[in-house]
Amino acid sequence: MAYYNWILAFHVMSFISWMAMLFYQPRLYVYHQEHADNQGFVEVVKIQENKLYGFIGVPAMWATILSGGAMIALNPGLLQSGLWLHIKLTAALLLVAYHFSLGWFKKRLHEEKCTKSGKFFRAYNEVPTILMIVIVIMVVVKPI
């Protein structure tokens, strides 16, 4: 248990980094779709999309998952500490699904096969905010 707090700190930092990507990637998709007629601009946005997703998002997601798993392995009693953890893990699983959906949209955008509008991506950008609120409330308040 000596390393538990260090793992927890790493988990929080990883989660913050992952959330930064989850918040900004759909915004890049808005720019991508709303400026599709400006090929030079779109090429720059594609580079940003690739770097944000691949160099920040993917490692931060895996760091979050692995550090969270390590905390549960070090303290398996967490699984009996209440429904809050199960709700948090469900929300985290939904964030993973959302993350991979962003990768799918990125692929479609780069192939010029995406039919979603900038307006869609503005609304889709709210999904991680809602899930983050659920996660933070479950961890901090532990209401159930």
What does this structure look like?
By secondary structure, the chain is an all-alpha fold. The chain has one domain. It is 81% helix and 0% strand. The chain contains five helices and no strands. The longest helix is centred in the middle third of the chain and has 36 residues, at 39-74. The mean pLDDT is 96.
The termini sit apart by 25 Å
- Write the element-wise H/E pattern from the N-terminal end onward: HHHHH
Secondary-structure-based class equals mainly alpha
Share in β-strands? under 5%
- The percent range for helix content is over 70%
Number of helices: 5
- Number of separate strands: 0
Report the mean per-residue pLDDT as an integer: 96
Task: List segments where confidence is low: pLDDT < 50 over at least 5 consecutive residues.
Answer: none
Main β-sheet, in a few words? none
Q: Tell me the radius of gyration.
A: 17 Å
Domains counted in the coordinates: how many?
1
Shape: elongated
Throw out a few tags for this protein:
144 residues; elongated; 81% helix; mainly alpha; single chain
List the helices and strands and how they pair.
Blueprint: H1 4-34, H2 39-74, H3 83-110, H4 118-124, H5 127-140
Helix pairs in contact: 1-2, 1-3, 1-4, 2-3, 3-5
Short summary of the structure?
The protein has 144 residues and is an all-alpha fold.
